[in-house]
């Protein structure tokens, strides 16, 4: 590397890291972006849905050149049992106006493009390098050491090295996640002709659809599944809490294979050829698990800082926004010539005033509420589907009798007081 002293070193070329690097470079700072993969995106796994607003803040008019798959104009939520399901969704052509609210992407393609935007902004992007440790001087973090033995110095290091941030742990502001604070997700990318995808999902060229699913297919474990449309592939996967996988000894891939045979899934993926398989840890602890976000000479952003909102399938947008705020904080610190904890605390203030902390705080009890009431994952999908079956059934009986049967079933299964408790739990889940 031509230089060994930078204004800032960013570890990890994912959405958070690249956003931070671009923000600082455009303000005139000398920035190095280090990525352990052979190229940006080689180590990253995501569904993947990309939200426009946050990327547009970093790369204006990105949609004119970014490798996007489909503009998502339809979003669905399914509640499933073994043979039934309730489908809720919204579709609007308003979302097709550029830029769309969100797009499906292929992470390897997107990350390569995004890292090139960082290079264009003046960032020194170095791939295939693994950071082994931090350099300290007088109680401050002043750089990094690589596994090759190189020492790179900087005023501030920003750790965007993923869910299990080793650098944040070495800095003493992070700990290894507990099994209940992370999920293990498995994903397949399945190839299908564009025309088949359009026909099966009732889409036109360029239009995309997302489906999020909950139900008894997780066998009572904390988790959900997804199915997203790309141009000529489908992204299909599921994830459950690590402690649940440990408790049940269920293997994630076996659970995914079993779910492929579900009567709602089977016809959508019929004839598709798996071209990629991946697994990844996902931060699920949310607000309660957010670590210290800064120390003297260091910030953390993205997945490393639990910047993910599973209640709303949001992650990349929080990563990019937190990266931008981290970058802005370093720019301000550079102007002051002060990289102490007090100076870098501006980062936490920015986050607290943004949608990130407000949303994470609003949904902070989602995980707790579901863990306390596992029936929400098993009993309620069954009750809701059976009730829908009775509601639409035409069997010669008056509809009044159908309604009475639905009410009796709920009272028998849950009772009045438990049902009220369930409603309170749902209120916690939706964050109201």
Task: State the gist of this model.
This protein is of the alpha/beta class and 432 residues long. The chain contains 16 helices and 17 strands.
What does it look like?
- It is a single chain.
- It contains 16 helices and 17 strands.
- The chain has about 425 residues and is an alpha/beta fold.
- The protein is globular, with a radius of gyration of 23 Å.
Intertermini distance: 51 Å
Q: Can you count the helices?
A: 16
Inertia-based shape = globular
Q: Describe the biggest sheet? A: 9 strands, mixed
Count of strand segments: 17
Radius of gyration: 23 Å
Average of per-residue pLDDT values: 90
Features:
432 residues; alpha/beta; 8-stranded mixed beta sheet; 37% helix
Question: How is the secondary structure organized here?
Answer:
Layout: E1 5-11, H1 15-26, E2 31-35, E3 49-51, H2 52-58, E4 68-80, E5 85-91, E6 102-105, H3 107-120, E7 124-127, E8 131-137, E9 140-146, E10 151-159, H4 166-170, E11 182-191, H5 194-201, E12 207-215, E13 223-229, E14 233-241, H6 242-248, H7 252-260, H8 266-269, E15 273-283, E16 294-295, E17 298-300, H9 316-336, H10 341-344, H11 346-353, H12 355-362, H13 366-372, H14 379-392, H15 399-413, H16 415-430
Parallel strand pairs: 1-2, 1-10, 2-7, 4-12, 10-17
Antiparallel strand pairs: 3-6, 4-5, 4-6, 8-9, 9-10, 11-14, 11-15, 12-13, 13-14, 16-17
